Protein backbone atom coordinates (compact mmCIF):
# COMPACT_ATOMS: atom_id res chain seq x y z
CA UNK A 1 0.00 0.00 0.00
CA UNK A 2 1.12 3.55 -0.57
CA UNK A 3 3.04 5.00 2.30
CA UNK A 4 4.22 1.63 3.56
CA UNK A 5 7.94 1.26 4.14
CA UNK A 6 9.08 -2.21 3.07
CA UNK A 7 10.39 -4.29 5.95
CA UNK A 8 11.85 -7.31 4.23
CA UNK A 9 15.17 -6.72 2.58
CA UNK A 10 16.55 -8.94 -0.20
CA UNK A 11 19.90 -10.50 0.65
CA UNK A 12 21.50 -9.35 -2.59
CA UNK A 13 21.60 -6.27 -4.76
CA UNK A 14 21.63 -7.92 -8.16
CA UNK A 15 17.94 -7.28 -8.84
CA UNK A 16 18.48 -4.83 -11.64
CA UNK A 17 18.18 -1.27 -10.43
CA UNK A 18 16.42 -2.28 -7.23
CA UNK A 19 15.50 0.84 -5.31
CA UNK A 20 18.05 1.11 -2.53
CA UNK A 21 20.25 3.79 -0.95
CA UNK A 22 23.67 5.13 -0.38
CA UNK A 23 26.46 5.90 1.99
CA UNK A 24 29.63 4.03 1.35
CA UNK A 25 31.17 2.78 4.55
CA UNK A 26 32.44 5.62 6.64
CA UNK A 27 35.69 5.33 4.67
CA UNK A 28 34.03 6.76 1.58
CA UNK A 29 33.18 10.03 3.18
CA UNK A 30 35.16 13.18 2.68
CA UNK A 31 35.19 14.52 -0.84
CA UNK A 32 36.31 17.78 -2.42
CA UNK A 33 33.78 20.56 -1.98
CA UNK A 34 34.39 21.88 -5.47
CA UNK A 35 36.14 21.00 -8.68
CA UNK A 36 39.34 22.53 -9.94
CA UNK A 37 38.84 25.91 -11.51
CA UNK A 38 35.77 26.69 -9.42
CA UNK A 39 33.34 24.94 -11.77
CA UNK A 40 31.25 23.50 -8.96
CA UNK A 41 29.04 26.58 -8.90
CA UNK A 42 27.71 25.61 -12.34
CA UNK A 43 27.08 22.01 -11.31
CA UNK A 44 24.32 20.64 -9.18
CA UNK A 45 22.83 17.44 -7.86
CA UNK A 46 19.94 16.10 -9.94
CA UNK A 47 17.17 14.45 -7.94
CA UNK A 48 14.44 12.19 -9.36
CA UNK A 49 11.76 11.05 -6.90
CA UNK A 50 10.90 7.43 -7.67
CA UNK A 51 8.38 6.93 -4.89
CA UNK A 52 6.75 9.37 -2.46
CA UNK A 53 4.59 7.89 0.31
CA UNK A 54 1.20 9.45 1.10
CA UNK A 55 2.42 10.36 4.57
CA UNK A 56 5.62 12.37 4.35
CA UNK A 57 6.71 13.24 7.87
CA UNK A 58 9.14 14.08 9.22
CA UNK A 59 11.21 15.42 6.34
CA UNK A 60 14.96 15.08 6.74
CA UNK A 61 17.02 18.12 7.69
CA UNK A 62 20.59 18.85 8.62
CA UNK A 63 21.57 17.10 11.86
CA UNK A 64 18.99 14.30 11.57
CA UNK A 65 20.01 10.68 12.02
CA UNK A 66 18.97 8.76 8.88
CA UNK A 67 18.60 5.05 8.20
CA UNK A 68 18.71 4.00 4.55
CA UNK A 69 19.77 1.49 1.89
CA UNK A 70 21.37 2.39 -1.44
CA UNK A 71 23.09 1.32 -4.64
CA UNK A 72 25.88 3.34 -6.26
CA UNK A 73 26.54 3.32 -10.03
CA UNK A 74 29.02 4.97 -12.37
CA UNK A 75 27.10 7.19 -14.79
CA UNK A 76 29.62 6.50 -17.54
CA UNK A 77 28.78 2.81 -18.02
CA UNK A 78 26.12 1.99 -15.45
CA UNK A 79 28.40 -0.35 -13.50
CA UNK A 80 27.61 -0.77 -9.83
CA UNK A 81 30.41 0.12 -7.40
CA UNK A 82 28.52 -0.26 -4.13
CA UNK A 83 25.52 -2.01 -2.58
CA UNK A 84 24.69 -1.42 1.08
CA UNK A 85 22.73 -4.67 1.36
CA UNK A 86 25.88 -6.73 0.90
CA UNK A 87 27.64 -4.89 3.75
CA UNK A 88 27.24 -5.25 7.52
CA UNK A 89 24.97 -8.32 7.20
CA UNK A 90 22.56 -6.33 5.07
CA UNK A 91 21.64 -3.77 7.74
CA UNK A 92 20.61 -0.32 6.48
CA UNK A 93 23.18 2.41 7.06
CA UNK A 94 22.96 5.01 9.82
CA UNK A 95 24.48 8.46 9.42
CA UNK A 96 23.98 12.07 10.40
CA UNK A 97 22.83 14.25 7.49
CA UNK A 98 24.50 17.46 6.42
CA UNK A 99 27.66 17.28 8.53
CA UNK A 100 30.14 15.70 6.11
CA UNK A 101 29.76 12.02 6.97
CA UNK A 102 29.01 11.37 3.31
CA UNK A 103 30.12 13.08 0.11
CA UNK A 104 28.73 16.57 -0.28
CA UNK A 105 26.46 15.57 -3.14
CA UNK A 106 24.67 13.07 -0.91
CA UNK A 107 24.27 15.54 1.91
CA UNK A 108 22.53 17.78 -0.62
CA UNK A 109 20.52 15.03 -2.33
CA UNK A 110 18.97 13.65 0.85
CA UNK A 111 17.66 16.88 2.33
CA UNK A 112 13.86 17.16 2.69
CA UNK A 113 13.40 13.43 2.17
CA UNK A 114 10.70 11.50 4.03
CA UNK A 115 10.62 7.95 5.45
CA UNK A 116 9.65 5.50 2.73
CA UNK A 117 10.73 7.82 -0.08
CA UNK A 118 12.89 6.52 -2.90
CA UNK A 119 15.15 8.72 -5.01
CA UNK A 120 17.54 8.42 -7.90
CA UNK A 121 20.22 11.10 -7.67
CA UNK A 122 23.00 12.11 -10.05
CA UNK A 123 26.06 13.72 -8.51
CA UNK A 124 28.75 15.56 -10.52
CA UNK A 125 32.45 14.88 -9.80
CA UNK A 126 32.87 18.23 -8.03
CA UNK A 127 30.38 17.12 -5.36
CA UNK A 128 31.72 13.55 -5.21
CA UNK A 129 35.38 12.46 -5.52
CA UNK A 130 36.64 15.04 -7.99
CA UNK A 131 39.76 14.69 -10.08
CA UNK A 132 41.42 12.20 -7.76
CA UNK A 133 38.58 9.67 -7.68
CA UNK A 134 38.56 6.95 -5.05
CA UNK A 135 40.54 3.89 -6.09
CA UNK A 136 39.55 1.77 -3.09
CA UNK A 137 35.90 2.28 -3.95
CA UNK A 138 36.53 1.62 -7.67
CA UNK A 139 35.59 5.18 -8.53
CA UNK A 140 37.75 6.67 -11.32
CA UNK A 141 38.80 10.34 -11.56
CA UNK A 142 36.16 12.85 -12.70
CA UNK A 143 33.35 10.33 -12.22
CA UNK A 144 29.70 11.31 -12.20
CA UNK A 145 27.86 9.07 -9.72
CA UNK A 146 24.29 7.80 -9.59
CA UNK A 147 22.70 6.55 -6.38
CA UNK A 148 19.36 4.82 -5.91
CA UNK A 149 18.26 5.54 -2.36
CA UNK A 150 15.53 4.20 -0.10
CA UNK A 151 15.10 6.03 3.20
CA UNK A 152 13.69 4.05 6.12
CA UNK A 153 13.82 6.37 9.12
CA UNK A 154 14.39 10.02 10.06
CA UNK A 155 15.29 10.58 13.72
CA UNK A 156 16.38 13.61 15.64
CA UNK A 157 20.15 13.46 15.36
CA UNK A 158 22.67 13.80 18.15
CA UNK A 159 24.04 16.97 16.51
CA UNK A 160 20.85 18.97 16.15
CA UNK A 161 20.68 22.27 17.99
CA UNK A 162 17.50 21.17 19.75
CA UNK A 163 19.27 18.15 21.19
CA UNK A 164 22.11 20.01 22.93
CA UNK A 165 20.23 20.91 26.12
CA UNK A 166 18.69 17.44 26.28
CA UNK A 167 22.12 15.83 26.09
CA UNK A 168 23.74 18.27 28.53
CA UNK A 169 22.24 16.69 31.65
CA UNK A 170 24.39 18.62 34.14
CA UNK A 171 23.94 21.94 32.36
CA UNK A 172 27.64 22.75 32.16
CA UNK A 173 27.42 23.74 28.46
CA UNK A 174 29.68 20.92 27.34
CA UNK A 175 28.92 17.35 26.37
CA UNK A 176 30.74 14.39 27.86
CA UNK A 177 31.11 11.00 26.22
CA UNK A 178 28.77 9.58 28.85
CA UNK A 179 26.08 12.19 28.12
CA UNK A 180 26.17 11.63 24.38
CA UNK A 181 26.29 7.86 24.80
CA UNK A 182 23.19 7.96 26.98
CA UNK A 183 21.41 10.21 24.49
CA UNK A 184 22.08 7.79 21.65
CA UNK A 185 20.79 4.86 23.70
CA UNK A 186 17.60 6.75 24.53
CA UNK A 187 17.00 7.71 20.91
CA UNK A 188 17.62 4.19 19.67
CA UNK A 189 15.28 2.73 22.29
CA UNK A 190 12.59 5.28 21.47
CA UNK A 191 12.24 4.37 17.80
CA UNK A 192 12.45 0.63 18.49
CA UNK A 193 14.35 -0.17 15.29
CA UNK A 194 16.89 -2.98 15.18
CA UNK A 195 20.48 -1.88 14.69
CA UNK A 196 23.80 -3.57 14.37
CA UNK A 197 25.51 -3.67 17.80
CA UNK A 198 28.40 -1.60 16.46
CA UNK A 199 26.18 1.33 15.38
CA UNK A 200 26.23 3.05 18.78
CA UNK A 201 30.01 2.96 19.20
CA UNK A 202 30.67 3.99 15.60
CA UNK A 203 28.40 7.03 15.79
CA UNK A 204 29.74 8.04 19.22
CA UNK A 205 33.37 7.81 18.05
CA UNK A 206 32.58 9.75 14.87
CA UNK A 207 30.88 12.56 16.81
CA UNK A 208 33.95 13.09 18.99
CA UNK A 209 36.37 12.74 16.10
CA UNK A 210 34.63 15.48 14.12
CA UNK A 211 33.63 17.80 16.99
CA UNK A 212 36.11 17.55 19.87
CA UNK A 213 38.65 19.83 18.21
CA UNK A 214 40.78 20.51 21.29
CA UNK A 215 40.70 16.79 22.21
CA UNK A 216 39.82 17.47 25.85
CA UNK A 217 37.23 14.71 25.98
CA UNK A 218 34.28 17.12 25.87
CA UNK A 219 32.33 18.83 23.12
CA UNK A 220 31.75 22.45 24.03
CA UNK A 221 28.73 24.42 22.85
CA UNK A 222 31.00 26.15 20.33
CA UNK A 223 32.42 22.87 19.03
CA UNK A 224 28.98 21.28 18.89
CA UNK A 225 27.67 24.08 16.71
CA UNK A 226 30.46 23.91 14.14
CA UNK A 227 28.08 22.45 11.59
CA UNK A 228 25.07 24.62 12.43
CA UNK A 229 25.29 26.86 9.37
CA UNK A 230 23.13 27.44 6.31
CA UNK A 231 22.25 24.59 3.99
CA UNK A 232 25.10 23.13 1.99
Descriptive keywords:
alpha+beta; Chitinase A, domain 3; Recoverin, domain 1; 2 domains; 6-stranded antiparallel sheet; two-stranded antiparallel ribbon; endoplasmic reticulum; PPIase_FKBP_dom; isomerase; peptidyl-prolyl cis-trans isomerase activity
Write up what this structure looks like.
With 232 residues, the chain is α+β, with helices and mostly antiparallel strands. It has 2 domains: 46-155, Chitinase A, domain 3 (Roll); 161-225, EF-hand (Recoverin, domain 1, Orthogonal Bundle), CATH 1.10.238.10. Helices cover 20% and strands 20% of the residues. It has 5 helices and 8 strands. It has helices at 104-109, 161-167, 177-191, 198-211, 221-224; strands spanning 46-51, 65-74, 80-83, 93-96, 118-123, 145-155, 174-176, 218-220. The strands form 2 sheets. Strands 1, 2, 3, 4, 5 and 6 form a 6-stranded antiparallel sheet that branches. It has a two-stranded antiparallel sheet with strand order 7-8. A hairpin with a 5-residue loop joins strand 2 (65-74) and strand 3. Helix 3 (177-191) packs across helix 4. It is globular, with a radius of gyration of 18 Å. Mean pLDDT is 78; it is low at 1-12, 14-41 and 226-232. Residues 63-155 form the PPIase FKBP-type domain. It is an enzyme of class 5 (isomerase). Its EC number is 5.2.1.8.
Amino acid sequence: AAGTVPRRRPPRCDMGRGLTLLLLPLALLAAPARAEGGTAAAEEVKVEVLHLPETCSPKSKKGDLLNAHYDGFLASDGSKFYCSRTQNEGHPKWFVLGVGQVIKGLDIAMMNMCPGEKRKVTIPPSLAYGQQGYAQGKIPPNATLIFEIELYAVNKGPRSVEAFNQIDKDGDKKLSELEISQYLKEEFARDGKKRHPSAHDEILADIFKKNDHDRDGFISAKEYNVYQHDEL
